[in-house]
Protein backbone atom coordinates (compact mmCIF):
# COMPACT_ATOMS: atom_id res chain seq x y z
CA UNK A 1 0.00 0.00 0.00
CA UNK A 2 1.12 3.60 -0.56
CA UNK A 3 2.61 5.94 2.02
CA UNK A 4 -0.68 7.86 2.24
CA UNK A 5 -2.56 4.61 2.95
CA UNK A 6 -0.04 3.83 5.71
CA UNK A 7 -0.68 7.31 7.12
CA UNK A 8 -4.44 6.72 7.08
CA UNK A 9 -3.97 3.44 8.97
CA UNK A 10 -1.71 5.10 11.54
CA UNK A 11 -4.12 8.01 12.00
CA UNK A 12 -7.03 5.60 12.44
CA UNK A 13 -5.10 3.71 15.13
CA UNK A 14 -4.38 6.96 16.98
CA UNK A 15 -8.05 7.94 16.87
CA UNK A 16 -9.06 4.50 18.16
CA UNK A 17 -6.59 4.90 21.03
CA UNK A 18 -8.18 8.23 21.94
CA UNK A 19 -11.67 6.68 21.82
CA UNK A 20 -10.70 3.74 24.04
CA UNK A 21 -9.09 6.07 26.60
CA UNK A 22 -12.16 8.32 26.56
CA UNK A 23 -14.53 5.40 27.19
CA UNK A 24 -12.37 4.17 30.08
CA UNK A 25 -12.26 7.59 31.75
CA UNK A 26 -16.02 8.08 31.23
CA UNK A 27 -16.69 4.86 33.10
CA UNK A 28 -14.55 5.97 36.05
CA UNK A 29 -15.80 9.58 36.02
CA UNK A 30 -19.47 8.55 35.88
CA UNK A 31 -19.02 6.38 38.97
CA UNK A 32 -17.30 9.22 40.85
CA UNK A 33 -19.90 11.79 39.79
CA UNK A 34 -22.85 9.62 40.78
CA UNK A 35 -21.40 9.16 44.26
CA UNK A 36 -20.29 12.80 44.68
CA UNK A 37 -23.10 14.75 43.03
CA UNK A 38 -25.88 12.38 43.89
CA UNK A 39 -28.56 11.13 41.52
CA UNK A 40 -30.52 14.43 41.42
CA UNK A 41 -27.61 16.77 40.65
CA UNK A 42 -26.07 14.27 38.24
CA UNK A 43 -29.38 14.10 36.40
CA UNK A 44 -29.68 17.91 36.38
CA UNK A 45 -26.21 18.35 34.85
CA UNK A 46 -26.88 15.62 32.29
CA UNK A 47 -30.12 17.18 31.09
CA UNK A 48 -28.74 20.76 31.09
CA UNK A 49 -25.63 19.70 29.18
CA UNK A 50 -27.82 17.65 26.84
CA UNK A 51 -29.90 20.69 25.86
CA UNK A 52 -26.76 22.65 25.03
CA UNK A 53 -25.03 19.75 23.25
CA UNK A 54 -28.03 19.48 20.93
CA UNK A 55 -26.27 22.28 19.05
CA UNK A 56 -23.31 20.00 18.33
CA UNK A 57 -24.85 18.86 15.04
CA UNK A 58 -24.60 22.47 13.84
CA UNK A 59 -20.96 22.55 14.89
CA UNK A 60 -20.26 19.26 13.09
CA UNK A 61 -21.71 20.58 9.84
CA UNK A 62 -19.56 23.72 10.00
CA UNK A 63 -16.42 21.71 10.83
CA UNK A 64 -17.00 19.40 7.86
CA UNK A 65 -17.44 22.37 5.53
CA UNK A 66 -14.29 24.18 6.68
CA UNK A 67 -12.17 21.02 6.56
CA UNK A 68 -13.41 20.16 3.09
CA UNK A 69 -12.35 23.50 1.60
CA UNK A 70 -9.02 23.58 3.45
CA UNK A 71 -8.14 20.03 2.35
CA UNK A 72 -9.29 20.74 -1.21
CA UNK A 73 -6.99 23.76 -1.56
CA UNK A 74 -4.14 21.92 0.18
CA UNK A 75 -4.41 19.36 -2.61
CA UNK A 76 -3.83 22.21 -5.08
CA UNK A 77 -1.01 23.64 -2.94
CA UNK A 78 -2.84 27.00 -2.99
CA UNK A 79 -1.91 28.79 0.24
CA UNK A 80 -3.70 32.11 -0.56
CA UNK A 81 -6.94 30.18 -1.13
CA UNK A 82 -6.48 28.37 2.20
CA UNK A 83 -6.00 31.72 3.93
CA UNK A 84 -9.16 33.09 2.32
CA UNK A 85 -11.11 30.01 3.44
CA UNK A 86 -9.75 30.37 6.97
CA UNK A 87 -10.66 34.07 7.07
CA UNK A 88 -14.21 33.41 5.88
CA UNK A 89 -14.56 30.53 8.32
CA UNK A 90 -13.40 32.67 11.27
CA UNK A 91 -16.00 35.35 10.43
CA UNK A 92 -18.81 32.81 10.06
CA UNK A 93 -17.94 31.08 13.31
CA UNK A 94 -17.60 34.28 15.31
CA UNK A 95 -21.05 35.38 14.15
CA UNK A 96 -22.47 31.93 14.81
CA UNK A 97 -20.89 31.69 18.29
CA UNK A 98 -22.20 35.11 19.36
CA UNK A 99 -25.70 34.36 18.02
CA UNK A 100 -25.87 30.91 19.66
CA UNK A 101 -24.64 32.09 23.06
CA UNK A 102 -26.91 35.15 23.11
CA UNK A 103 -29.83 32.87 22.23
CA UNK A 104 -28.91 30.37 24.95
CA UNK A 105 -28.43 33.04 27.61
CA UNK A 106 -31.62 34.87 26.63
CA UNK A 107 -33.71 31.73 27.04
CA UNK A 108 -31.77 30.11 29.88
CA UNK A 109 -34.38 31.09 32.45
CA UNK A 110 -37.27 29.82 30.35
CA UNK A 111 -35.54 26.54 29.55
CA UNK A 112 -34.48 25.82 33.13
CA UNK A 113 -37.75 26.90 34.79
CA UNK A 114 -40.41 25.81 32.31
CA UNK A 115 -38.95 23.24 29.87
CA UNK A 116 -36.73 21.08 32.08
CA UNK A 117 -38.13 19.29 35.11
CA UNK A 118 -35.79 20.53 37.87
CA UNK A 119 -36.51 20.73 41.63
CA UNK A 120 -37.14 24.30 42.80
CA UNK A 121 -34.34 24.08 45.37
CA UNK A 122 -31.79 23.36 42.62
CA UNK A 123 -33.10 25.88 40.07
CA UNK A 124 -30.40 28.50 40.68
CA UNK A 125 -27.57 25.93 40.47
CA UNK A 126 -29.06 24.52 37.26
CA UNK A 127 -29.19 28.01 35.70
CA UNK A 128 -25.53 28.54 36.67
CA UNK A 129 -24.59 25.22 35.03
CA UNK A 130 -26.53 26.23 31.90
CA UNK A 131 -24.55 29.47 31.63
CA UNK A 132 -21.23 27.62 32.11
CA UNK A 133 -22.05 25.12 29.36
CA UNK A 134 -23.20 27.93 27.06
CA UNK A 135 -19.79 29.61 27.43
CA UNK A 136 -18.12 26.27 26.72
CA UNK A 137 -20.15 26.03 23.51
CA UNK A 138 -18.96 29.53 22.55
CA UNK A 139 -15.29 28.50 22.81
CA UNK A 140 -15.96 25.28 20.90
CA UNK A 141 -17.65 27.08 17.99
CA UNK A 142 -14.99 29.80 17.75
CA UNK A 143 -12.15 27.28 17.58
CA UNK A 144 -13.73 25.18 14.77
CA UNK A 145 -11.59 26.75 11.98
CA UNK A 146 -8.44 25.84 13.94
CA UNK A 147 -9.50 22.25 14.66
CA UNK A 148 -10.59 21.90 11.02
CA UNK A 149 -7.11 23.02 9.97
CA UNK A 150 -5.53 20.41 12.25
CA UNK A 151 -7.77 17.74 10.73
CA UNK A 152 -7.04 18.93 7.19
CA UNK A 153 -3.29 18.58 7.87
CA UNK A 154 -3.98 15.06 9.24
CA UNK A 155 -2.12 15.98 12.42
CA UNK A 156 -3.67 13.16 14.42
CA UNK A 157 -0.86 13.15 16.98
CA UNK A 158 -1.95 16.66 18.00
CA UNK A 159 -5.58 15.50 18.09
CA UNK A 160 -4.50 12.58 20.30
CA UNK A 161 -2.48 14.90 22.58
CA UNK A 162 -5.37 17.35 22.95
CA UNK A 163 -7.75 14.43 23.44
CA UNK A 164 -5.64 12.94 26.23
CA UNK A 165 -5.39 16.38 27.86
CA UNK A 166 -9.18 16.72 27.69
CA UNK A 167 -9.69 13.22 29.11
CA UNK A 168 -7.34 13.84 32.05
CA UNK A 169 -8.84 17.26 32.79
CA UNK A 170 -12.36 15.80 32.78
CA UNK A 171 -11.18 13.25 35.32
CA UNK A 172 -9.69 16.06 37.42
CA UNK A 173 -12.98 17.99 37.14
CA UNK A 174 -14.87 14.93 38.38
CA UNK A 175 -12.60 14.51 41.40
CA UNK A 176 -12.37 18.26 42.06
CA UNK A 177 -15.86 18.37 43.52
CA UNK A 178 -14.48 16.35 46.44
CA UNK A 179 -11.94 19.09 47.20
CA UNK A 180 -14.30 22.09 47.48
CA UNK A 181 -16.95 22.92 50.04
CA UNK A 182 -19.02 24.97 47.55
CA UNK A 183 -22.07 23.69 45.68
CA UNK A 184 -20.84 20.55 43.92
CA UNK A 185 -22.97 21.08 40.82
CA UNK A 186 -21.59 24.61 40.35
CA UNK A 187 -18.01 23.41 40.91
CA UNK A 188 -18.37 20.65 38.32
CA UNK A 189 -20.02 22.98 35.79
CA UNK A 190 -17.12 25.46 36.18
CA UNK A 191 -14.65 22.62 35.82
CA UNK A 192 -16.20 21.35 32.58
CA UNK A 193 -16.28 24.88 31.13
CA UNK A 194 -12.60 25.29 32.06
CA UNK A 195 -11.79 21.98 30.32
CA UNK A 196 -13.42 23.27 27.12
CA UNK A 197 -11.51 26.57 27.22
CA UNK A 198 -8.15 24.90 27.94
CA UNK A 199 -8.38 22.21 25.25
CA UNK A 200 -9.82 24.60 22.66
CA UNK A 201 -7.03 27.03 23.52
CA UNK A 202 -4.52 24.24 22.86
CA UNK A 203 -5.92 23.74 19.36
CA UNK A 204 -5.94 27.50 18.66
CA UNK A 205 -2.34 28.08 19.78
CA UNK A 206 -1.04 25.01 17.94
CA UNK A 207 -2.76 25.92 14.66
CA UNK A 208 -1.56 29.57 14.76
CA UNK A 209 2.03 28.53 15.46
CA UNK A 210 2.23 25.68 12.94
CA UNK A 211 -0.03 26.33 9.93
CA UNK A 212 0.56 29.24 7.53
CA UNK A 213 -3.10 29.53 6.55
CA UNK A 214 -4.11 30.39 10.13
CA UNK A 215 -3.49 34.14 9.89
CA UNK A 216 -5.73 37.03 10.99
CA UNK A 217 -4.70 39.86 8.72
CA UNK A 218 -7.60 39.31 6.31
CA UNK A 219 -10.22 38.08 8.79
CA UNK A 220 -12.19 41.34 8.63
CA UNK A 221 -12.18 41.31 4.81
CA UNK A 222 -13.42 37.85 3.74
CA UNK A 223 -14.50 37.48 0.12
CA UNK A 224 -18.19 37.16 -0.61
CA UNK A 225 -17.50 34.13 -2.78
CA UNK A 226 -15.76 32.23 0.03
CA UNK A 227 -18.50 33.12 2.53
CA UNK A 228 -21.14 31.95 0.08
CA UNK A 229 -19.38 28.66 -0.77
CA UNK A 230 -18.63 27.66 2.82
CA UNK A 231 -22.04 28.79 4.09
CA UNK A 232 -23.87 26.93 1.30
CA UNK A 233 -21.87 23.73 1.81
CA UNK A 234 -22.40 23.86 5.59
CA UNK A 235 -26.11 24.60 5.14
CA UNK A 236 -26.80 21.63 2.88
CA UNK A 237 -24.59 19.41 5.04
CA UNK A 238 -26.66 20.55 8.01
CA UNK A 239 -29.85 19.58 6.16
CA UNK A 240 -28.48 16.04 5.73
CA UNK A 241 -27.57 15.83 9.41
CA UNK A 242 -31.02 17.08 10.46
CA UNK A 243 -32.65 14.50 8.16
CA UNK A 244 -30.79 11.73 9.95
CA UNK A 245 -31.66 13.11 13.41
CA UNK A 246 -35.27 13.68 12.36
CA UNK A 247 -35.57 10.09 11.20
CA UNK A 248 -34.12 8.70 14.46
CA UNK A 249 -36.25 10.89 16.75
CA UNK A 250 -39.34 10.62 14.55
CA UNK A 251 -39.30 6.82 14.79
CA UNK A 252 -39.09 7.17 18.59
CA UNK A 253 -42.22 9.34 18.56
CA UNK A 254 -44.10 6.90 16.31
CA UNK A 255 -43.16 3.97 18.56
CA UNK A 256 -44.36 5.97 21.57
CA UNK A 257 -47.71 6.75 19.91
CA UNK A 258 -48.45 3.13 19.02
CA UNK A 259 -46.77 1.12 21.78
CA UNK A 260 -45.89 3.40 24.72
CA UNK A 261 -42.67 4.08 26.65
CA UNK A 262 -41.64 0.42 27.08
CA UNK A 263 -40.98 0.17 23.34
CA UNK A 264 -39.10 3.48 23.50
CA UNK A 265 -36.81 1.92 26.09
CA UNK A 266 -35.96 -0.93 23.71
CA UNK A 267 -35.40 1.50 20.84
CA UNK A 268 -33.26 3.77 23.03
CA UNK A 269 -30.98 0.89 24.08
CA UNK A 270 -30.69 -0.22 20.46
CA UNK A 271 -29.63 3.29 19.44
CA UNK A 272 -26.95 3.29 22.15
CA UNK A 273 -25.59 -0.02 20.87
CA UNK A 274 -25.47 1.12 17.24
CA UNK A 275 -23.91 4.42 18.30
CA UNK A 276 -21.01 2.60 19.96
CA UNK A 277 -20.63 0.25 16.99
CA UNK A 278 -20.58 3.19 14.58
CA UNK A 279 -17.40 4.50 16.24
CA UNK A 280 -15.44 1.54 14.86
CA UNK A 281 -15.81 2.82 11.31
CA UNK A 282 -16.37 6.56 11.84
CA UNK A 283 -12.83 6.90 13.25
CA UNK A 284 -11.44 5.57 9.98
CA UNK A 285 -13.51 8.06 7.95
CA UNK A 286 -12.17 10.92 10.05
CA UNK A 287 -8.64 9.79 9.16
CA UNK A 288 -9.24 9.18 5.45
CA UNK A 289 -11.49 12.15 4.59
CA UNK A 290 -8.65 14.71 4.31
CA UNK A 291 -6.89 12.45 1.78
CA UNK A 292 -10.07 12.17 -0.30
CA UNK A 293 -10.53 15.95 -0.37
CA UNK A 294 -6.85 16.60 -1.14
CA UNK A 295 -6.92 14.13 -4.04
CA UNK A 296 -9.90 15.92 -5.58
CA UNK A 297 -8.25 19.29 -5.02
CA UNK A 298 -5.09 17.98 -6.69
CA UNK A 299 -7.18 16.91 -9.71
CA UNK A 300 -6.41 13.24 -9.06
CA UNK A 301 -9.95 11.90 -9.48
CA UNK A 302 -8.81 8.28 -9.84
CA UNK A 303 -7.05 8.33 -6.46
CA UNK A 304 -10.03 10.08 -4.86
CA UNK A 305 -12.37 7.35 -6.09
CA UNK A 306 -9.95 4.60 -5.05
CA UNK A 307 -9.80 6.02 -1.52
CA UNK A 308 -13.60 6.36 -1.41
CA UNK A 309 -14.07 2.73 -2.43
CA UNK A 310 -11.50 1.59 0.14
CA UNK A 311 -13.26 3.70 2.78
CA UNK A 312 -16.56 1.95 2.06
CA UNK A 313 -14.91 -1.48 2.07
CA UNK A 314 -12.95 -1.03 5.29
CA UNK A 315 -15.78 0.84 6.98
CA UNK A 316 -17.97 -2.22 6.43
CA UNK A 317 -15.20 -4.63 7.45
CA UNK A 318 -14.39 -2.75 10.66
CA UNK A 319 -18.05 -2.56 11.65
CA UNK A 320 -18.69 -6.18 10.71
CA UNK A 321 -15.80 -7.39 12.88
CA UNK A 322 -17.77 -6.31 15.94
CA UNK A 323 -21.38 -6.24 14.77
CA UNK A 324 -21.73 -9.67 13.15
CA UNK A 325 -20.56 -11.75 16.17
CA UNK A 326 -22.59 -9.57 18.54
CA UNK A 327 -25.77 -10.08 16.53
CA UNK A 328 -25.72 -13.81 17.34
CA UNK A 329 -25.11 -13.25 21.06
CA UNK A 330 -27.23 -10.12 21.48
CA UNK A 331 -29.75 -11.57 23.98
CA UNK A 332 -26.94 -12.89 26.22
CA UNK A 333 -25.02 -9.61 26.02
CA UNK A 334 -28.10 -7.57 26.89
CA UNK A 335 -28.79 -9.78 29.92
CA UNK A 336 -25.17 -9.37 31.04
CA UNK A 337 -25.24 -5.58 30.51
CA UNK A 338 -28.74 -4.59 31.62
CA UNK A 339 -30.05 -7.55 33.57
CA UNK A 340 -33.69 -7.26 32.46
CA UNK A 341 -34.16 -5.53 29.11
CA UNK A 342 -37.44 -5.24 27.18
CA UNK A 343 -37.96 -8.39 25.12
CA UNK A 344 -37.93 -6.41 21.85
CA UNK A 345 -34.47 -4.94 22.48
CA UNK A 346 -32.41 -7.72 20.85
CA UNK A 347 -34.42 -7.62 17.62
CA UNK A 348 -34.24 -3.80 17.53
CA UNK A 349 -30.46 -3.93 18.04
CA UNK A 350 -29.95 -6.46 15.26
CA UNK A 351 -32.15 -4.67 12.73
CA UNK A 352 -30.48 -1.31 13.45
CA UNK A 353 -27.06 -2.97 13.06
CA UNK A 354 -28.08 -4.35 9.67
CA UNK A 355 -29.16 -0.85 8.63
CA UNK A 356 -25.90 0.60 9.95
CA UNK A 357 -23.85 -1.94 7.97
CA UNK A 358 -25.71 -1.01 4.80
CA UNK A 359 -25.00 2.66 5.52
CA UNK A 360 -21.31 1.98 6.15
CA UNK A 361 -20.96 0.12 2.87
CA UNK A 362 -21.57 3.42 1.05
CA UNK A 363 -19.96 5.84 3.50
CA UNK A 364 -17.05 6.48 1.12
CA UNK A 365 -19.48 7.51 -1.62
CA UNK A 366 -20.75 10.35 0.56
CA UNK A 367 -17.16 11.59 0.95
CA UNK A 368 -16.64 11.33 -2.82
CA UNK A 369 -19.71 13.48 -3.48
CA UNK A 370 -18.65 15.99 -0.82
CA UNK A 371 -15.19 16.18 -2.42
CA UNK A 372 -16.78 17.42 -5.66
CA UNK A 373 -18.50 20.23 -3.70
CA UNK A 374 -21.84 19.74 -5.50
CA UNK A 375 -23.93 18.46 -2.59
CA UNK A 376 -27.22 20.37 -2.84
CA UNK A 377 -29.25 17.78 -4.77
CA UNK A 378 -27.44 14.95 -3.00
CA UNK A 379 -28.45 16.16 0.47
CA UNK A 380 -32.01 16.96 -0.60
CA UNK A 381 -32.64 13.58 -2.24
CA UNK A 382 -30.77 11.35 0.22
CA UNK A 383 -32.16 13.31 3.20
CA UNK A 384 -35.64 13.10 1.69
CA UNK A 385 -35.33 9.32 1.31
CA UNK A 386 -34.31 8.99 4.96
CA UNK A 387 -37.27 11.10 6.14
CA UNK A 388 -39.58 8.99 3.97
CA UNK A 389 -39.03 6.29 6.60
CA UNK A 390 -41.43 8.14 8.94
CA UNK A 391 -44.64 8.08 6.84
CA UNK A 392 -43.87 4.52 5.70
CA UNK A 393 -43.52 3.35 9.30
CA UNK A 394 -46.63 5.21 10.42
CA UNK A 395 -48.81 3.77 7.64
CA UNK A 396 -47.53 0.23 8.22
CA UNK A 397 -48.31 0.38 11.93
CA UNK A 398 -51.65 2.04 11.27
CA UNK A 399 -52.54 -0.91 9.04
CA UNK A 400 -51.82 -3.29 11.92
CA UNK A 401 -48.30 -4.44 11.07
CA UNK A 402 -46.20 -5.79 14.00
CA UNK A 403 -43.80 -3.49 15.84
CA UNK A 404 -40.61 -4.76 14.18
CA UNK A 405 -41.78 -3.74 10.70
CA UNK A 406 -40.88 -0.17 11.61
CA UNK A 407 -37.21 -1.19 11.56
CA UNK A 408 -37.59 -3.50 8.57
CA UNK A 409 -38.67 -0.35 6.73
CA UNK A 410 -35.57 1.32 8.24
CA UNK A 411 -33.37 -1.30 6.55
CA UNK A 412 -35.26 -0.90 3.26
CA UNK A 413 -34.83 2.88 3.32
CA UNK A 414 -31.08 2.46 3.95
CA UNK A 415 -30.89 0.25 0.86
CA UNK A 416 -32.70 2.87 -1.22
CA UNK A 417 -30.41 5.63 0.14
CA UNK A 418 -27.35 3.51 -0.71
CA UNK A 419 -28.48 3.12 -4.31
CA UNK A 420 -29.06 6.87 -4.50
CA UNK A 421 -25.53 7.54 -3.20
CA UNK A 422 -24.17 5.21 -5.87
CA UNK A 423 -26.08 7.11 -8.56
CA UNK A 424 -24.71 10.46 -7.40
CA UNK A 425 -21.15 9.10 -7.21
CA UNK A 426 -21.55 7.89 -10.79
CA UNK A 427 -23.01 11.16 -12.06
CA UNK A 428 -20.76 13.61 -10.18
CA UNK A 429 -17.48 11.70 -9.88
CA UNK A 430 -17.59 9.04 -12.58
CA UNK A 431 -17.54 6.06 -10.20
CA UNK A 432 -17.98 2.70 -11.94
CA UNK A 433 -20.81 0.84 -10.12
CA UNK A 434 -19.61 -2.63 -11.18
CA UNK A 435 -16.09 -2.02 -9.84
CA UNK A 436 -17.52 -0.59 -6.61
CA UNK A 437 -19.80 -3.62 -6.08
CA UNK A 438 -16.95 -6.05 -6.78
CA UNK A 439 -14.52 -4.32 -4.41
CA UNK A 440 -16.96 -3.62 -1.56
CA UNK A 441 -19.72 -6.21 -1.59
CA UNK A 442 -17.84 -8.91 -3.50
CA UNK A 443 -14.99 -8.78 -0.97
CA UNK A 444 -16.43 -7.58 2.35
CA UNK A 445 -19.48 -9.83 2.23
CA UNK A 446 -17.32 -12.98 2.19
CA UNK A 447 -16.12 -12.76 5.83
CA UNK A 448 -19.56 -11.54 6.90
CA UNK A 449 -21.20 -14.60 5.30
CA UNK A 450 -18.57 -16.97 6.71
CA UNK A 451 -19.00 -15.57 10.21
CA UNK A 452 -22.79 -15.68 9.98
CA UNK A 453 -22.57 -19.33 8.93
CA UNK A 454 -20.27 -20.16 11.86
CA UNK A 455 -22.56 -18.25 14.23
CA UNK A 456 -25.62 -20.13 13.01
CA UNK A 457 -23.73 -23.42 13.41
CA UNK A 458 -22.67 -22.55 16.96
CA UNK A 459 -26.23 -21.55 17.90
CA UNK A 460 -27.93 -24.49 16.16
CA UNK A 461 -25.62 -27.39 16.99
CA UNK A 462 -23.34 -26.57 19.91
CA UNK A 463 -25.66 -24.16 21.73
CA UNK A 464 -23.09 -22.80 24.21
CA UNK A 465 -24.75 -21.55 27.39
CA UNK A 466 -23.75 -19.20 30.17
CA UNK A 467 -21.07 -16.54 30.28
CA UNK A 468 -18.19 -18.78 29.20
CA UNK A 469 -20.28 -20.28 26.43
CA UNK A 470 -20.99 -16.77 25.11
CA UNK A 471 -17.27 -15.90 25.21
CA UNK A 472 -16.39 -19.13 23.38
CA UNK A 473 -18.98 -18.40 20.70
CA UNK A 474 -17.77 -14.81 20.24
CA UNK A 475 -14.11 -15.90 20.11
CA UNK A 476 -14.82 -18.57 17.48
CA UNK A 477 -16.79 -16.17 15.28
CA UNK A 478 -14.10 -13.49 15.61
CA UNK A 479 -11.41 -15.97 14.55
CA UNK A 480 -13.47 -16.95 11.52
CA UNK A 481 -14.06 -13.29 10.65
CA UNK A 482 -10.44 -12.20 10.93
CA UNK A 483 -9.11 -15.23 9.05
CA UNK A 484 -11.60 -14.93 6.20
CA UNK A 485 -11.02 -11.17 6.03
CA UNK A 486 -7.26 -11.66 5.61
CA UNK A 487 -7.51 -14.38 2.96
CA UNK A 488 -10.73 -13.45 1.14
CA UNK A 489 -11.44 -9.73 1.60
CA UNK A 490 -8.02 -8.07 1.43
CA UNK A 491 -6.41 -7.34 -1.92
CA UNK A 492 -2.80 -8.34 -2.57
CA UNK A 493 -1.36 -4.91 -1.78
CA UNK A 494 -3.47 -4.71 1.39
CA UNK A 495 -2.20 -8.10 2.59
CA UNK A 496 1.38 -7.03 1.81
CA UNK A 497 0.94 -3.89 3.93
CA UNK A 498 -0.63 -5.94 6.73
CA UNK A 499 2.30 -8.39 6.68
CA UNK A 500 4.80 -5.53 6.84
CA UNK A 501 2.90 -3.90 9.70
CA UNK A 502 2.85 -7.17 11.68
CA UNK A 503 6.57 -7.71 11.04
CA UNK A 504 7.24 -4.21 12.36
CA UNK A 505 5.30 -4.94 15.55
CA UNK A 506 7.04 -8.30 16.09
CA UNK A 507 10.47 -6.76 15.44
CA UNK A 508 9.81 -3.98 17.93
CA UNK A 509 8.61 -6.50 20.53
CA UNK A 510 11.77 -8.62 20.08
CA UNK A 511 14.04 -5.57 20.43
CA UNK A 512 12.28 -4.46 23.62
CA UNK A 513 12.56 -8.00 25.01
CA UNK A 514 16.28 -8.11 24.17
CA UNK A 515 16.85 -4.75 25.90
CA UNK A 516 14.96 -5.93 28.97
TrEMBL record:
Top-level taxon in the UniProt lineage: Bacteria
Membrane topology: Multi-pass membrane protein
Keywords for this protein: Cell membrane, Membrane, Transmembrane, Transmembrane helix
Coiled coil: none
UniProt-annotated location(s): Cell membrane
Transmembrane segments: 12-30, 42-64, 85-108, 128-147, 159-180, 186-208, 311-328, 334-358, 378-397, 403-422, 434-455, 467-489
Main localization category: membrane
Protein name per its UniProtKB record: Lipopolysaccharide biosynthesis protein
Amino acid sequence: MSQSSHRVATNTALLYLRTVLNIGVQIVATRVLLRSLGVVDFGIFSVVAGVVVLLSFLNAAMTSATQRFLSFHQGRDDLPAQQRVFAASICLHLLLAVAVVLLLLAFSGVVVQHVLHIPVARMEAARFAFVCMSLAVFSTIVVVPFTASINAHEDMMTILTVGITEILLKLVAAFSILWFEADHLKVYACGMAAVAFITNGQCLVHAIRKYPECVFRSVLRPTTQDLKEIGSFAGWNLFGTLSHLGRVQGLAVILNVFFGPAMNAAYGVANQVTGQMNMFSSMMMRAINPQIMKSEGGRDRDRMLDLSVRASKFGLLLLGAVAVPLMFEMPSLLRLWLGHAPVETAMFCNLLLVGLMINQSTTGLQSAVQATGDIKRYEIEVGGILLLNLPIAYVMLRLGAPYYTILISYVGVELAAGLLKLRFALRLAGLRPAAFAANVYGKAMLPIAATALSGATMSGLLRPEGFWGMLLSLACMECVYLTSTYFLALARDERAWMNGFLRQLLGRARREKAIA
